Amino acid sequence: MRFTSLKLDSLRDLFIEELRDLYSAESQLIEALPLMANAAHSATLKSAFNHHLAQTKEHAARLERIFSGIGEKAAGETCEAMKGLVKEGQQLIDAKGDANVRDAGLIGAAQRVEHYEMAGYGTARSLAKRLGENEIASVLQQTLDEEGETDKKLTSLAESQTTPQASSTGSR
Known about the structure:
78% of the residues lie in helices and 0% in strands. α1 (11-39) runs parallel beside α3 (80-94), α1 packs antiparallel against α4 and α3 (80-94) packs antiparallel against α4. The protein contains six helices and no strands.
């Protein structure tokens, strides 16, 4: 059982916690993406991970600007969900076997991360709107749109980059 000191007395409290969770998630992803890029066999997938790393750094910087604008600190929250997703991704990074199959697994792991981030940014954007923080909502929507585009690119990679060998069944 985990004890928490989290206290949510207002939507603003929840909003700040959501932002802190996203900031922790982005920070963890900044550490994980270079490992995923190094593990990728496909040059296209390596490039996609490196591109998303630059984008993720910008997402973290946007969150820092939001925190500065509302007079709050970004630190204080550890995103346990991202911690788990990164751990699962690490298992694929360390996996032995066919490099094309591992690439397919890395794409899946990256998409799980994107879906988690899209849910978080959508929630934070909705809370910002309810709080009348329309400029912040707009910034969060921009990031949400970029996360969605990354997911679409990963889907395209999954459908086009995976070789027939990776999609065939192995020994049963």
